[in-house]
Fold this protein.
Amino acid sequence: MLSEHSTELRVRYDECDPMGLVHHSNYLRYMEIARTELFRASGGNYRDLEASGLFVVVVRIECNYRQPAKYDDLLTIHVQIDRVTEAKIEQSYRVERDGLSLLTAKITLAVINSAGRPQRIPDSLR
């Protein structure tokens, strides 16, 4: 599994608030996309993982908003795996525009089964 990956996304009009800035909630979507692309680039597939009865859930988010993004900005979302234990995955994120840091974040993930019970992190996510 790769330990880091970068994904580029262009800000769409509907992701902006009335001031023309990306609404803060959309950064969570951007990080979800980057996390999925990291898994895909590593040869994984969330659809297959979920078909096996396992689901990746966010259990903690810490975001530091530094600068706003605007409509049509090309953003680069960097994701890095910091630590994997038996029960959780800790990741760091950085959202940039032209090398300028707009947001940093830390997200902790866990894996649950279809009954909502915590599971060990499978090898495919390590």
Q: What stands out?
A: The CA atoms of residues 88 and 110 lie 5 Å apart.
